[in-house]
Design goal:
This protein starts with a helix and ends with a strand. The radius of gyration is 17 Å and the shape is elongated. By secondary structure, the protein is mostly beta strands. It has one domain: Porin, CATH 2.40.160. Helices cover 8% and strands 66% of the residues. A hairpin with a 7-residue loop joins β6 and β7. The chain has 1 helix and 9 strands.
């Protein structure tokens, strides 16, 4: 199902140029942040690297619509049970609203897959989850933007380990190909 959603989103991004009022532009971004995860009662933290590729456009009346494919690398380990998350990837839908000529507020709605390895090298697993978030993005120059964001991801239940979730506060640089 995840592959079908990824393919459908890619086709939409490629063909959406015809339907958008103000044209659109692809972009890439690189960021980092602080992540706090919980699995049952266990807390753990990490500082990952984030890479994303997207396509977005103004829809008129200050509205924005974008789509993004992302990946996060960086080991995040729990202190008590040793549950480790080494990477995740996913796809997001990003509706936004222009607050000023150079600043946009946006929401993030997406799906993510996270790779978990329990303590003692027990069989690792990859769990799907739903992702929601809020953020601000502002122009630094014509092609460079600065983005700040809070994102919450809730993964499905992992047998014996609970339902891991992630709270992330991130900052990113975005390069838009105009």
């Amino acid at each position: 199902m995840f592959k079908k959603l990824l393919i459908a989103s890619a086709v939409l991004a490629i063909t959406s140029n015809v339907a958008l009022a103000n044209g659109g532009a692809p972009y890439v971004g690189l960021g980092t942040g602080v992540i706090a995860n919980t699995a049952s009662t266990t807390s753990y933290r990490g500082v990952p690297g984030i890479l994303f590729v997207g396509y977005g456009a103004g829809m008129g009346q200050g509205l924005y619509l974008g789509g993004e494919v992302f990946g996060t690398l960086g080991a995040i380990t729990a202190k008590d049970n040793g549950l480790k998350s080494t990477y995740n990837y996913g796809i997001s839908f990003i509706p936004g609203l222009m607050i000023s000529d150079h600043t946009m507020g946006f929401a993030r709605l997406g799906l993510a897959r996270t790779h978990f390895t329990p303590k003692g090298n027990i069989k690792s697993t990859t769990a799907s989850g739903v992702q929601v978030g809020l953020g601000l993005q502002t122009s630094l120059t014509q092609n460079w933007d600065l983005r700040g964001e809070y994102t919450y991801t809730a993964s499905k239940n992992i047998s014996g380990l609970g339902r891991p979730s992630t709270d992330a506060a991130t900052g990113s640089l975005v390069y838009k190909f105009d």
